[in-house]
């Protein structure tokens, strides 16, 4: 699963021969393993491996360069996709540390998946729409925040209006 977390993005697929998708910092690898153990594996066990599809996982320094070229809507300072990677100034890219991934469960409303994720040890969840991928992160300093993003990509606290 770690390899898939590092190579699942569309940008990596497009430029795979030019990108080293793997972490430089061993703490990032450990955090990705914890994300897999505490979040991904339980989600797969609940909804089935055949329905689980990663859409974005770990963001290496090389991948970040290509994402920036494509003007992607990423926010490395808070979204935890860069895990424990360190920038040229010796600081972590993301102040929250941990690790994150985006995934979709085919044929299942994302709100139902979020209802399940709320039972797990998550740090933050981003909801983009019922049929869109979900962002979920893990951190040792769990904040347990859930954000819903509007059509204009503005975050607001998630309103749990879905009944399971």
Topology:
Layout: H1 2-7, H2 10-15, H3 26-47, E1 52-56, H4 61-69, E2 99-105, H5 110-117, E3 124-127, E4 134-138, E5 145-149, E6 155-157
Helix content: 25-40%
- Tally of separate domains: 1
First-residue to last-residue Cα separation: 29 Å
Question: Which topology does CATH recognise?
Answer: Muramoyl-pentapeptide Carboxypeptidase, domain 2
Elements, N to C (H/E) = HHHEHEHEEEE
Tally the helices. 5
Strand order of the largest sheet: 1-2-4-3-5-6
The largest pleated sheet is described as:
6 strands, mixed
Rg, Å, rounded? 15 Å
Classified by CATH, the class is Alpha Beta
| Low-pLDDT runs | none
- Which architecture per CATH? 2-Layer Sandwich
Q: What is the strand content?
A: 15-25%
For the residues shown, what is the average pLDDT? 87
User: What is the count of β-strands?
Assistant: 6
- Helix/strand-derived category reads alpha+beta
What does this structure look like?
- The protein is built from 5 helices and 6 strands.
- A hairpin with a 5-residue loop joins strand 5 (145-149) and strand 6.
- The protein has one domain (2-157): Muramoyl-pentapeptide Carboxypeptidase, domain 2.
- It is globular and about 40 Å long.
- The protein has a 6-stranded mixed beta sheet with strand order 1-2-4-3-5-6.
- It is an alpha+beta fold.
- This is Peptidase M15.
- It comes from Nostoc cycadae WK-1.
Any descriptors?
164 residues, alpha+beta, Muramoyl-pentapeptide Carboxypeptidase, domain 2, six-stranded mixed beta sheet, 6 strands
